[in-house]
Here is the input.
Amino acid sequence: MHRPPRVPPDVPAAERLPRFTAAAVQAAPVFLDPAATVDKAVALIAEAAAAGAELVVFPEAFVPGYPYWNWTMNPVQGSPWFERLQRASVDIPGPHVDALRAAARRHGVVLVIGVNERVPHSLGVLHNTLLTIGADGALLGVHRKLVPTWAEKLTWTGGDGSSLRVHRTPVGPLGALACGENTNTLARYALLAQGELVHASCYIALPVAPADYDMADAIAVRTAAHSFEGKVFSVVACSTVSPEIVDLLAGDDEELRALFVRPRSALSGIFGPDGRPVVEPLVDDEGIVLGEIDLARCVQPKQMHDIVGHYNRFDVFHLNVDNSPRPPVTFTAPPDHPAPAPAADAVTTAPAHPEEDA
Here is the structure.
């Protein structure tokens, strides 16, 4: 008796879902030095690309580092550190972003990397921002973390819904969230509902968390949950805490030094649509995790549970996302709009040179 083949025949190449190598970078920044940190990132991009990676994901706030002082100092003590971070942060557009775009273009990789972003309208506003850069060097996305987590509110201003987007890239539909955003069910669903198949999760090592909090476990649980719920691949990248960061922020405080080197504070890896790691995750140490992503593996699991399709009740549930930008001020005309010319019959009673009447 003739049996049908277990695997359907090949489809035309243009209709195939991408299959590629992804890289999750687990590394420490050159703390509060944006130029040196970008140089380190460029070198790591080259290393990942040489190993075959077409997608490279870095930690959140990688350039030029994470404000750990929010967790270890009171706000008055931490304020000078905020100023140091503000002076070392990134302008978009700007030379540091240009260098990252050039590296992505030179090596032909899609890049996701976290930066501290300055804004032109205020010296008191910093954003925890994820950049998504195409393999051609195009800046595809600038996502500002929607809600800074806990102590982070002393440093970062929240973003808006305009950057909650999925980007069409050579490695498939790609979305990205920063750290605790991966706990936000609605933010994750908003990406899945835009067709996300590859998710970048960007984290920081958090040795200064409460004593009963295992950051490595927390990252693994959240990453597995999103992958399994959405039937997508997740690439999770976490920073590490270098000895230089410990020396700078802990100094001679032995109790604080011991806290900063606490184990199981970082985890990076690649998770499949079944919620399982594709390769063994990397815990605590610096390195690059490489893994193969085959988006065809997302198809059959979605037949079982497709929460943005047949496995939902859109007559019962409805998510409305306000994706409009939220600028600090809106003018009815541009600020540089020329003043209107006076009417022909206007009468001017003020002297041409008021100082002459003094």
The first helix runs from residue 34 to 50. The radius of gyration is 24 Å. The chain is about 25% helix and 20% strand.
